[in-house]
Design a protein that fits this description.
This protein is mainly α. Helix content is 60%, strand content 4%. The chain contains 22 helices and four strands. A two-stranded antiparallel ribbon has the order 1-2. It has a two-stranded antiparallel sheet with strand order 3-4. Helix 4 runs antiparallel to helix 7.
Length: 544
């Protein structure tokens, strides 16, 4: 907890320094110090994304970034901005920040932390963006911009990967300094995402901030549209946000199209990044085939697609069973899954119907555009993979639009206090959720409170692995564990080894002497298939 605080004290001035540079070019996102922090986050995310094409985001890149940020922070005397708060506001900031820091110090429990977030960050810091890395492990092809941002600060500024905690501090500061108190109501729920660099948290935070600024009538088209595109590049299921921003600025504000150029360039960079790592413009969808030679094998993509369909039904049906569903079966079985997810699905549809009626009654342009944008997003999610985690942000948006005038300072603080106590109790005593909500599987991975986390945030170490070689690729696999969060690179998850075997392929280095040149896949000959079978048998025997 204390070490996260020190990281925050160090990183926030750096973000403000870089944010001041952005303000000198594009103006202020909105009034306040949190605007500089968010602008700094935007420019560093994009800058590091470009740099990572050419070099790893190592300690030298971080040192230069930090020194430049601190230089502009002190040169422009930005620290004076912290004196604007009253004593009561300082007290509130301290209480909210202490709650966030405590929540962020618990053990990570989101499984993607071990199978996706940490491996991605390690690749970025050791090698940068690798061409065709999806051939090694399909999940790595995503390379979220948020993990690029986390990687840039992970060498010494934030070695425990708590950048989400720091963003929550910025979000709390935004709520207090802009006096839009309803944002305090969202923070307790977001505490559940603060232990890992989960893209869900920044995507939700940025969407709520952009939404607030649009409703408030702020007109910095360049940065607000750019921030909405950034949220999309972090998590593509946030497509409703750039759609909303585009419609708002073209239909209501009637902005000059040139003001959208910065955001469009970010979108272009996002597509280039995906093509470089995945072979297609939008991960994990195999649309827009450009004939890229390092694109993943078609069988691997088909397996991934089948898995996404099964995840729609919470893995409660096989792909073969789902194929036999009638249209009515698809709807019925999605609504009546076993466990809590069926309740979330039903609530999602009811909420959408209610909001459509609400928008029709209100007949306000902004609310109508929000409704249209959410419907576009919902249709796309329902069509591709209707997993609850892909539409969880809709609940935040609907709550904000319906109640942003209702929640004043007093009500918001009461909700924040009660909800924070509830969620921190869940993190501290996970046995409750494990017993009473067993269908919420993530609860089984919560580890509870340890006094050591008051100083250093809780982290896991495993570092048990085996090394194999097939063709020109020497790789590592975690022993008796499905994820490679601290396995030396290059590492492959066992699940993808099995997928490769079924497809009759295996990843190979483009240049056997240089991992940075990237990965391709190749068809296995009979001898290589036998060798792969031996490797798989070895893995199975180890995992017994």
């Amino acid at each position: 907890m204390i070490l996260i605080l020190l990281s925050s004290i160090f990183i926030i001035p750096v973000l403000m320094g870089w944010g001041k540079i952005v303000e000198n070019v594009y103006g202020s996102l909105f009034q306040g110090i949190s605007a500089k922090m968010l602008s700094g986050t935007l420019v560093l995310s994009l800058g590091w994304a470009i740099i990572s094409f050419f070099t790893p985001l190592n300690i030298y890149v971080e040192i230069i970034t930090v020194l430049l940020g601190l230089f502009f922070f002190f040169k422009n005397q930005l620290y004076h901005a912290f004196y604007q708060f009253s004593k009561k506001e300082y007290c509130l900031i301290a209480i909210v920040s202490g709650t966030i820091l405590l929540a962020g110090s618990y053990y990570p429990y989101i499984l993607d932390h071990f199978g996706y977030y940490v491996p991605t960050i390690r690749w970025l810091t050791e090698y940068g963006l690798i061409q065709g890395i999806s051939n090694l492990d399909l999940t790595l092809g995503q390379m979220s911009v948020w993990h690029i941002f986390q990687a840039g600060f992970s060498n010494f500024s934030d070695p425990y990967l708590r950048i989400n905690t720091i963003l929550l501090l910025i979000y709390a500061l935004y709520s207090i300094e802009t006096k839009t108190w309803i944002h305090l109501c969202f923070i307790p729920v977001l505490l559940l995402f603060s232990q890992s660099p989960s893209p869900d948290l920044p995507a939700i935070v940025f969407s709520l901030i952009v939404l607030n600024e649009l409703i408030a009538g702020h007109k910095n088209t360049v940065l607000l549209f750019a921030l909405s595109i950034l949220a999309f590049t972090i998590k593509p299921t946030m497509i409703w946000l750039p759609v909303l921003a585009f419609l708002y600025f073209t239909l209501i504000i009637k902005s000059n199209f040139r003001k959208l150029t910065f955001g469009i360039l970010i979108l272009f960079l996002f597509c280039i990044k995906n093509i470089w790592t995945f072979g297609y413009p939008l991960f994990p969808v195999a649309l827009g085939d450009l004939g890229i030679p390092w694109k993943p094998n078609a069988e691997i993509l088909k397996t991934s697609s089948h898995y996404a369909i099964q995840k729609t039904y919470d893995m409660q049906y096989s792909y073969e069973e789902i194929k036999q569903f009638s249209t009515w079966d698809h709807i019925k079985n999605w609504f009546f899954l076993n466990g809590i997810k069926s309740k979330i699905n039903i609530l999602f549809i009811l909420s959408l119907i209610f909001f459509i009626v609400f928008a029709c009654i209100k007949k306000r342009k902004t609310i109508t555009l929000i409704c249209i944008s959410l419907l576009i997003k919902s249709i796309l999610v329902l069509a591709f993979s209707a997993q609850y985690r892909f539409f969880i942000d809709v609940f935040f948006v609907l709550f904000f639009v319906l109640f942003y005038r209702y929640f004043d300072k007093r009500k918001s603080i009461i909700v924040f206090s009660a909800a924070s106590l509830f969620f921190i109790s869940l993190l501290s005593f996970p046995g409750f959720i494990q017993q009473y909500v067993p269908s919420f599987r993530l609860g089984n991975f919560m580890a509870g409170f340890e006094k050591e986390q008051l100083y250093k945030p809780s982290t896991y170490e495993y570092n048990q692995f085996q090394t194999f070689k097939l063709g020109n690729l020497k790789f590592n696999i975690s022993k008796n564990y499905p994820y490679n969060f601290d396995t030396p690179l290059p590492a492959i998850s066992p699940g993808y080894i099995f997928d490769d075997k079924r497809a009759g392929i295996f990843p190979q280095l483009k240049d056997k002497n240089d991992v940075r040149k990237g990965f391709i896949w190749k068809k296995l000959n009979p001898e290589e298939k036998m060798e792969l079978e031996k490797i798989i048998n070895n893995i199975k025997n180890t995992d017994k």
